[in-house]
UniProtKB/TrEMBL annotation:
UniProt cross-references to Pfam families, sorted A to Z: HTH_26
Residue ranges occupied by any HTH cro/C1-type domain in the UniProt entry: 13-62
UniProt-listed PROSITE patterns: HTH_CROC1
InterPro entries per the UniProt record, alphabetical: Cro/C1-type_HTH (IPR001387), Lambda_DNA-bd_dom_sf (IPR010982)
Gene3D superfamilies, alphabetized: lambda repressor-like DNA-binding domains
Name of the protein: Helix-turn-helix transcriptional regulator
Any one GO molecular function term: DNA binding
UniProt cross-references to SMART domains, sorted A to Z: HTH_XRE (SM00530)
Length: 75
């Protein structure tokens, strides 16, 4: 996958738990966990907008493009 989700990094910076974010965004913890674990195939702009509002960040703070032939993302 060429798009890496950095939700865990932003949550750590904001000192917020996944369950707190899920409640604030009104999304299930299971769906947010899928996004955080980089297993999501898509995200709605409305969900991305809500996450960015709660975390006070930009979409680029959450998503990173890594070329397929680039270095492996850190785990």
């Amino acid at each position: 996958m060429a798009i890496i989700v950095r939700l865990d990094v932003m949550l750590a910076r904001r000192k917020m738990s996944l369950s707190t974010l899920a409640a604030a965004v009104d999304i299930t913890l299971a769906n947010l966990s899928i996004l955080k674990s980089d297993k999501a195939k898509a995200i709605r702009f409305s969900t991305l907008d809500a996450i960015c509002q709660v975390l006070e960040c930009q979409p680029g703070d959450l998503l990173e493009y890594v070329p397929d032939n680039g270095p492996a993302p850190p785990k």
